[in-house]
Structures are given as C-alpha cells and as structure tokens.
Design a protein that fits this description.
The protein is an alpha/beta fold. Helices cover 43% and strands 11% of the residues. It folds into 3 domains: 87 residues, no CATH class; 260 residues, Type I PLP-dependent aspartate aminotransferase-like (Major domain) (Aspartate Aminotransferase, domain 2, 3-Layer(aba) Sandwich), CATH 3.40.640; 113 residues, Alpha-Beta Complex (Aspartate Aminotransferase, domain 1). Bound molecules: pyridoxal-5'-phosphate (PLP). The site of pyridoxal-5'-phosphate has 13 residues, from α7.
Length: 500
C-alpha cells in the first residue's frame, strides 16, 4: 500500500466510526456475559504463548495493496476479540482480585475520549478543557475531604506510587530547602516513619528521594494492625531528643494487605505536637469519603499535611487516575524548584495555576480526570458511595461466612473490601508454613482454571489468601462459591498427594 493511502486509511472517519461502533457492540455483549459469570475470569496462558500469539499479529500487520476500510475493520474485529478472549476479565463476577476496578463503562468511555482527543493536562493552553475539568474535580474532591477552600493544593497524577512520591517530595522541598540543588550533603539525612504494612512504593520513594531505605523506620502496630499511637509519640520524642530530622510520618487509610485504616485524628494530634509532616496514603481507602457508612474511617485525613487518593481503586475509574492533596498552597511551586521556560508563558498571566505540570513529575499528562468528572456529572457523587458500600458489604458478608466455617480462618475483620483468610482442613497436621504453601497451591490451581481470580499475600511470613471485592455485582453466593472451590481444590490436591 502506498504511504499516502495508508495514512488516509489510518485517519479515515469511516474507519473510525466503524471500529468505535464495533467496540461498543462487542463490549456490551462481553459485559452481559461477564455479569452472568460466563466464561473464564482469567484465561490462563503461559507468558511465552501470549507473546508468540501477539507477535503473530505483528507479523500479519502489513496492509495489502488496495486494502480498504472494510478489510481493516474486519481485521480490527479479530484483534478486539483476541483482547477480550485473552485478557483478565475484571467485569466477571468472579474477579475478586487486585485493587483495580472494573470501571463502569461510562467512565471507560470518557477515558477513550481522552485518548481520542489526546488532550494534554500539564499545560493549560495544551488542554484548556481538561485543565478546567481537573481543577473543578480537584476543588469538589477537596471539599468532600473537608479541606478548607483556598487552603489546599490538589492535582491528578499517574497513580498512587507517583502520588506518594510527589507528596513526599513536597515534604522534602518545603522542609529541607537546599536539598533539590545540593542533596542532603549540607546536613543530616532525615528519617521517614512509616506504617509497617505501607505499600512498597513508600519504601521506593525513600530510595528515590535520597533518604535511603535504611532510614525508613517501620512503626509499631497495635493489635488491630494500626499505627500504635502512644508508641509513635515515644518514637518521635526519642528522635527529637537525639536531634534526628524527620521527613514525615506516613499513615495509611486502607493498607494494601488488609484494608485497615489508621486512627488519623490521633496521629494528626501527635504530628502537630511534634511539628512533623503527616502524610496519609489513602490510595485505597480515599473513596470511602463518599460513603455515609464508611466516611468516619477517614476522620482526621483533612488535618494531614498531604495525602493521596487513587480514583482507579475505590472510585472505580479506569487506571490510572490518582489525586494528590497538600495543605501548603503558598508553597505549591516549591516541590520542583525548577523552571521550564519553553513550556510556561509568563505573558499568560493567571494561567500558571492551571499549568498542572508545574506540580507533577509528568510533562505530558493524560486528561485522566475525564473519567471521574464524567461519572460524577452523569450520576452524581453518590455513585462513588454506592460502589464503596456495595463492595464493602460483600466483603463483610464473606467474612461472616468464613468466620462461621470451621475449615477457614478469617485473619482480620475487614474494614473495607479486602478479606484475608486461609483454608485449614479439619484434619490438617502440617506446620503453619506448610499450610501457607498449601493455600498458595490451591489458589494457583483455581486461578489457572479460570473459575475465580483472587490473590495471595503473606501474613507474618506465612502464605494466605486475599480477596478484594472490586466488582459491585459480585454476589454473596459467588463468594460462597469461592469457598466451595477452595475446599474442593484443597481436597483434590490432598487426594493427589501434592506435596506442600
Ligand atoms: C495503599 C496503596 N498505596 C499505593 C499503591 C500504589 O498505587 P498505584 O498502583 O496506583 O501506583 C497501592 C496499590 O495497590 C496501594 O494499595
């Protein structure tokens, strides 16, 4: 095919219309089947098999002379079918896996519009509407979190890991002003005090920020696996008496492993007392602010110096869409003490506040807030609360069923949509480590069967099972079905003499 014909085809409005209509129809069928729990959740294929299959398409990608819209559209349909057939199906009721949402199709379509129009979200003039949307969403979200109007800075970024890093960078730049230019050479390097179960990205941030992971101090936890506040006070007093600088205390509003919420108000009191920056990783639990039932778990979040909330977790937006908030708006440009004259035009007075790139690591940034804005505008903020309530209610029911079953151990009472448990057959004779291994084998067998997708974790170095109810259409009977599946698989593995 001649280059000019190929370019015309690539931008053909007719082809665009055809493929978009096809995706709409095909996805609707896929969604309906998923809601009936039909087909596999995870169509398991070994990595090499998927790579080879994907490479086959690349090899067949050459358009033939004279090929028209019709021919490309037909080949497009095969690719779409393959994506649906071979991908993990988050919309399946038996997807009870990682903290990634099956997005409501409306939200996902806004994400697709963001791709189609490719609006920049870092510089106002590159994406005036997307910047307007981001500002409006940030303002309303900040309000929902109880932040004082005009007393905070907020922006969207590509994920909770980047969000935590950026917030901690803000903490570093504000409290240790020369570090951007000179590193920590001029004075002692600070320590970072962290919830022992914090997501690994916090530890990574310490490495990236030049603090060093050996200066991350894991905080003692109480019996409910929350930061032990009296112990926190003792640790801070001890560090202060030794003159050790402290970058921040990192609390969690929904830990990754168990979904546990720290007592944020008490931690805020202690941080105020010692004049220490309080950061909260609310990547998972931030969405609870929209729920009448669960909002109380976030009490005190509004007093944190900074926090992060992933909309692609409990606000059910497609990945990635995360928000960072901090309460130092007068220092908002301190995070990156850097200038980029070719991007930011000093003659456009007043637009710098909409040049979100001044606040983020990203230069090119997706118009990621269309998803939240679209859903909110069409269904109201209540939709986020409904989704949180539905998934957390299922998790509570599941926990109840596990607690009542003599052959299951419920390891933590869920506070959100995360349930951690083990199967323990009545006649179990092995060690706890072997039980952990046995549970891991059960899970691997089940997920490769395609019947359920759930995840594994380690609790005090022993393997355990973890279900995250991310699909609001998952039913109690689906979760009972998972228990039956675990039992049946365990019995089959034992009968087959599979060693643990
Ligand atoms: C509590 C918590 N913080 C941060 C992250 C990382 O967020 P992201 O995957 O958006 O980078 C996760 C991911 O699961 C998480 O659970």
């Amino acid at each position: 095919m001649a280059p000019s014909d190929r370019i015309r085809l690539a931008y053909s409005p007719e082809l665009a219309s055809r493929v978009l209509r096809h995706v709409g129809e095909r996805f609707a069928e896929h969604l309906a089947r998923s809601q009936q729990a039909e087909g596999p959740v995870l169509p398991w294929n070994a990595p090499a098999e998927n790579v080879a299959r994907a490479a086959e398409f690349l090899g067949a990608g050459e358009s033939q002379p004279g090929e028209d819209v019709e021919a490309v559209a037909r080949r497009f349909e095969t690719l779409v079918q393959t994506i649906l057939d071979r991908g993990i199906n988050l919309h399946h009721r038996h997807y009870i896996g990682h903290q990634v949402a099956p997005p409501p199709p409306l939200a996902a379509v806004f994400d697709a519009i963001s791709s189609l129009t490719n609006q920049g979200a870092a510089i106002y003039e590159m994406g005036p509407w997307s910047a307007g949307v981001e500002r409006a969403v940030v303002n309303r979200l900040g309000e929902a979190f109880g932040l004082p109007a005009g007393g905070f800075t907020g922006f969207a970024t590509h994920g909770g890991s980047l969000g935590n890093l950026t917030a901690l960078l803000t903490a570093r730049s504000i409290q240790f002003p020369g570090v951007w230019q000179n590193g920590f050479e001029a004075g002692p390097t600070p320590v970072l005090l962290v919830h022992r179960d914090a997501h690994y990205c916090v530890d990574r941030s310490a490495g990236i920020l030049g603090i060093g992971t050996s200066r991350v101090i894991p905080l003692a936890l109480d019996g409910d696996r929350r930061i032990d506040v009296p112990q926190l006070r003792t640790t801070l007093a001890d560090l202060r008496s030794r003159g050790t600088p402290i970058l921040a205390v990192v609390a969690c509003a929904g830990t990754t492993m168990t979904g546990t919420f720290d007592c944020l108000g008490d931690i805020a009191d202690v941080c105020r007392e010692f004049g220490v920056w309080m950061h909260v990783d609310a990547a998972h639990g931030g969405g609870a602010i929209f729920s009448e039932r669960h909002r109380h778990r976030l009490q005190g979040l509004e007093r944190a110096d900074s926090f992060v909330c992933d909309a692609h977790k409990m606000m059910f937006a497609p990945a990635l869409c995360a928000f960072v908030f901090h309460r130092h708006p007068d220092r908002r440009y301190a995070t990156f003490a850097q200038e980029a004259h070719y991007l930011y035009d000093p003659t456009a007075s007043g637009s710098a506040d909409f040049d979100f790139g001044l606040l983020t690591v990203e230069c090119t940034k997706r118009a990621m807030t269309y998803t939240v804005w679209g859903l909110w505008s069409l269904l109201g903020p209540g939709i986020f609360g409904d989704l949180v309530d539905a998934t957390c209610a299922r998790a509570e029911e599941f926990a109840e069923d596990l607690r009542e079953a003599p052959d299951f151990d419920l390891l933590f009472q869920p506070e959100s949509n995360i349930v951690v448990f083990r199967y323990r057959p009545a006649a179990w004779q092995g060690s706890e480590e072997q039980l952990g291994e046995f549970n891991r084998r059960i899970r691997r067998t089940i997920i490769e069967s395609g019947r359920f997708y759930f995840v594994q974790t380690s609790v005090d170095h022993v393997g355990a099972l973890r279900a995250v109810v991310m699909n609001p259409l998952t039913t109690r009977s689906d979760l009972r079905g998972l228990m039956d599946e675990v039992r049946a698989t365990g019995q089959a593995l034992s009968a087959a003499g599979v060693p643990v």
